[in-house]
Design goal:
- With about 575 residues, the protein is an alpha/beta fold.
- Among the domains are: about 5-90 and about 390-495 and about 505-585, no CATH class; about 115-220.
- Helices cover about 20% and strands about 25% of the residues.
- It has eleven helices and 30 strands.
- Strands 2-3-4-15-18-19-22-23 form an eight-stranded parallel barrel. Strands 6, 7, 8, 9, 10, 11 and 12 form a seven-stranded antiparallel β-sheet that branches. It has a six-stranded mixed β-sheet with strand order 1-29-28-30-27-26.
- Strand 8 (about 165) and strand 9 (about 170-175) form a beta hairpin.
- Helix 2 packs across helix 3.
- The protein starts with 5 loop residues before the first strand and ends with a strand.
Length: about 575
């Protein structure tokens, strides 16, 4: 007979089976080669870090047998081995879809006309095509303008070129005066005027006359002119540039002597589409199935102005409407860009590439969801859209830590607050119940996953919490949604692939499913935890910062894996510590 007891769940030490020889009882597991619910993986090989061991052939085979989707950087031999091991696996190469380097933008004809712009202010007086001094009524949400430090037309490692856009004309900023106050009827500008001396008709554009009060635009940056970047940044980013920050030009590779400035690309520009088309063609020719478009959504991520102040979504300039982009307009531009990639690659190669993207986030219920649905017309949707860090992310414990290559001990896991967690569970539920291809990534989908590999018990607790959370939302093993994790672990100076036994547990299919708005119905009365029943077990999740005592399970269950307190004892309630998840099977 099952005991009604109060068993405390605590994060337990992750035990690597290959190292300690512990194997979970096979009677609790399904097919040992294929996880019970679909998985996707981050598998960046960190080729830039020579201190990190490269994967073995067994690692590559395990990846192919375990994951439906994988993004990262791989050699042709590894790609061939993956496809031989599992021909249906989708392997995609990473590109940041909204960033281009100064080298790519400034050395390309029309490149500067292809960036995202924001409104720096307005002309305070009419100018002719010959005027070189402009009085600009500044928009005080943004930084004052700064002058170029380079006498040439392109930025270098130590010097940069700054410029303005006046309709279709570019003007290089030669010198600036300090802003001065002036009474103005344009209240939004607060009457701050800045005089700038410019070189008109810059970069092959034609000088033209412009009227008073016309919007004066500046390019949007990720790394802005004059930003102090550490030597570590130059070392770490140099060889990652192609995959992590976008090409700018097909085949371009970042050199440490290049300018570290990076620009945000306007998704409506031909340049923006050409970058992704050429990158995808190169990826497929190298043996990948297609591309992973990072930062592909209804807004630009972490954009800054010329002085480093944030540029928000309501400031991005839409040249078609001569006003700021709306989220809908930006999304439509991205949709057209996506179709250009599909159509161009298909026209060249005769088949469609696999295209995955990140990050759908909060935009899912407005515009993001539409990227996963065919139509209207001939619109071809993404093959999968990533929900990044739906359960938690990493937080550095000291300033100056590189989030892509810092040591694991310099990070801690930061969990989603309960409200944010609940919104994400509702989002995943909507996708699963709508048969949409969503990847629920437990933490970052970018290079920050590298430190996560070596975070031991912290990683294990987050992974189990996130997987149990995912199971609250998934409709069953045949769902088109996927649970996403880093493919690798790091321990004792080694880096290896390991698939957590939790993913092989045959918990069955849900016996109860509520619509997304009804997710809270999984909470037993008086408890903060969520409990969902399955045909062969139960899932329990506590998303809060407090311990939840004696959570009723609705039946008698046992712990199926080693390392858990009271394994083998049948229990009918558990005490859930903060941010923990639990899978139990019928006794």
């Amino acid at each position: 007979m099952a005991r009604s007891t109060n068993v405390q769940l605590r994060p337990f030490l992750f035990l690597v089976h290959a190292l300690v020889g512990i194997v979970a009882p096979s009677t609790y597991l399904c097919d040992a080669k294929h996880p019970r619910y679909p998985l996707a993986a981050l598998g960046g090989e960190a080729l830039h870090n020579k201190a990190v061991p490269l994967p073995t052939a067994d690692d590559i085979k395990t990846i192919a047998e375990s994951f439906d989707y994988l993004h990262g950087e791989y050699t042709s031999n590894w790609l061939q081995l993956m496809h031989e091991t599992r021909p249906g696996m989708g392997v995609v190469q990473y590109i940041n879809s909204h960033i281009a380097s100064a080298k790519g933008i400034e050395n390309t004809h029309g490149g500067r006309l292809s960036t995202i712009y924001y409104c720096t202010g307005w002309l305070d007086a009419e100018v002719s095509e010959k005027d070189t001094e402009l009085d600009i009524l500044l928009d005080n949400k943004h930084s004052p303008l700064i002058a170029s430090t380079s006498a040439g037309n392109v930025s270098t490692k130590d010097e940069y070129v700054t410029y303005l856009r006046l309709e279709n004309e570019l003007a290089k900023i030669v010198s600036v005066e300090s802003p001065r106050h002036k009474v103005s009827r344009l209240a939004k500008a607060n009457g701050t005027i800045q005089k700038v001396t410019v070189l008109r008709g810059f970069d092959g554009t034609s000088p033209a006359a412009h009227s008073k009060n016309m919007s004066v635009l500046g390019p949007s940056y990720k790394n802005y002119p004059g930003q102090q970047l550490s030597e570590n940044w130059l070392i770490d980013e140099a060889s990652l540039w192609k995959s992590e920050h976008g090409n700018g030009l097909p085949g371009e590779v970042f050199d440490r002597n290049d300018s570290p400035i990076t620009y945000d690309i306007d998704p409506a520009s031909g340049f923006a589409s050409a970058v992704l088309i050429n990158f995808t063609l190169q990826a497929v020719s190298a043996g990948y199935n297609g591309s992973w478009f990072d930062c592909f959504s209804d807004h630009v991520l972490k954009a800054t102005d010329v002085g480093g102040r944030p540029v928000h979504g309501d400031a991005y300039w839409n040249f078609a409407t001569k006003a700021s982009y709306t989220a809908e307009e930006f999304s439509n531009a991205q949709r057209k860009r996506l179709q250009a990639v599909f159509e161009s690659v298909h026209a060249t190669l005769g088949f469609f590439p696999l295209i995955l993207a990140n990050n759908v986030g909060a935009s899912y219920f407005t515009y993001g969801r539409s990227f996963l649905i065919p139509g209207p017309g001939d619109f071809r949707p993404l093959d999968a859209y990533d929900l990044e860090a739906f359960a938690g992310t990493l937080q550095a414990t000291k300033p100056g830590v590189n989030s892509c290559s810092g040591p694991p001990e310099d990070f801690v896991v930061e969990y989603k607050d309960p409200d944010g967690w609940l919104r994400n569970i509702q989002l995943i539920s909507n996708a699963s119940q709508s048969n949409l291809s969503l990847i629920a990534m437990m933490s970052s989908a970018g290079c920050e996953s590298f430190p996560m590999e070596g975070m031991g018990e912290q990683r294990t607790q987050l992974q189990h919490f996130a997987y149990a959370s995912y199971l609250l939302a998934a409709t069953g093993p045949s769902t088109r949604t996927h649970f996403g994790i880093p493919a690798y672990y790091q321990a004792n100076g080694t880096r290896f692939v390991h698939i957590d036994d939790w993913f092989y547990l045959d918990i069955g299919t849900p016996t109860e499913t509520y619509p997304p708005a009804g997710v809270t119905k999984y909470q037993p009365a008086g408890h903060a935890s969520f409990v969902r029943q399955f045909t062969k077990g139960v899932v329990v999740v506590n998303p809060t910062n407090t311990t939840d005592e004696a959570v009723p399970l609705g039946n008698s269950y046992h712990y199926p894996l080693v390392g858990v307190e009271a394994q083998g004892n049948a229990v009918s309630n558990v005490t859930m510590t903060p941010h923990t998840g639990l899978l139990m099977l019928y006794s």
